[in-house]
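Question thread 4412

I'm putting together a teaching handout and wanted feedback from people who do this every day. The idea is simple: show students a protein as raw sequence, then show them the structure tokens that encode its fold, then repeat with a second protein so they can compare. Below is the first pair exactly as I plan to print it.
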Amino acid sequence: MPEQTHDLFEIMATTRSMRRLKPDPVPDQLIRKILEAGVSAPSGGNMQRWRFLVVKDPAIKQTVGAYYKRAWDEVVAPRYGAGEPAPGTTRERFKRMLDAAQHLADHIHEAPVWVVPCLEGPNPTRTTGSSIYPAVQNMLLAARALGLGATLTTLYLNFEKEVEASLGLPADVHSYALLPIGYPMGRFGPVRRVPLDAVVYEDRWGQPYRDK
């Protein structure tokens, strides 16, 4: 039975990147709920230039999945393999994360549904991303609330032109992420992060934050 919850803080604290997904179909009404959560997010000037491509076609997923796996095998896996564990984690946990990422690279085309968040407009920048990533996070949290696994990945952008052509995107529309969605093989959270004291300052950079 999917681990559903409606407690917002529990959702945020347990929304891990779920990279091992079952191929079982996901009901359309649940995907609709996730998309509705996405369009509930803010966007710059409330212009809502976002567009969301829902991908279920096995042939398209196979084609894009091959580019994704190539990006992982040739670019990302070697970099992670030669690096140090992520902050706040052990080498063993880091290895488990890499194993899960390898699984996703090998099986991303088997995830029953992909959501590809896009924005209209040329030349993506950090500021344009601020009009789509709140929607992405809303969708990830909604998936968790519904007991569905998902993750935000941008590895395919190593082959951006090829992938966006495979997805049939117009020249003035760009993708900002790929969210594979499905029922998770594992369990949710809790997420593991570095302590606040290591990343939060007060008034000036480097000055400790002192909560009362």
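The second pair follows. I'd like the answer to focus on this one:
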Amino acid sequence: MPHDELTTHADDPQAPLDPLIDTPGREGLTGTTPATLYKPLPVRDQITIPPDGRPYEAQPGWRKDFPVDWPQDQYVARRDFAKFMVLTSLAFAVGQLWIGVQNVFRRRTGKLPIRQVATVDAVAVGASATFNYPGEHDACLLIRPGPDEFLAYGQSCTHLSCAVVPSVEKQCIHCPCHEGCFDLHSGRPIAGPPRRPLPRITLGVRQGVVYATGVERRTV
């Protein structure tokens, strides 16, 4: 094929293009074929063909949410995973901010009230009792590891707020929902998914009575 004819085809997009590479005079000269004849082939694993044959844009909403072919199903899974990670990170950040705001608010409004929790004789050594502090719906645990030792923590697990259970013989506070475990004497997480320690209730013992005097909310 003459050189000037090839130039004419390249300059005029409307001119008919010869798709045959084996035309006399062009055998093996694939570089002379206009680039517009070639386009990248889709990856086989990414080809999505709806069952009814209609284009993807014409599919109903439920079929887009519940794809039946592998590539689109993988795409939805990756998208949902990304959403989950973003929402989880946001929830963690909001939780940390909320703890900081509560601490600042408490410092500005003064100390929490002192409230009677239980009598010393009412809790046996190695046993525990529940009480509410500082609000009526703030469940807490009072634990007596030794004759002269009392500990108290918030009863809601710092992972997903399940009720924790003390185990004095194992020296831990156990969360049965996701197998979390907190150290009995510090309230800090030692196993499982929890990452923040339990809120610690400060105590005072006077004349055989145990009093709650404050709350220490910690992030580490």
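Top answer:
Good format. For the second protein you could add a caption like this: Confidence is low (pLDDT under 50) at residues 1-10. The longest strand covers residues 139-146.
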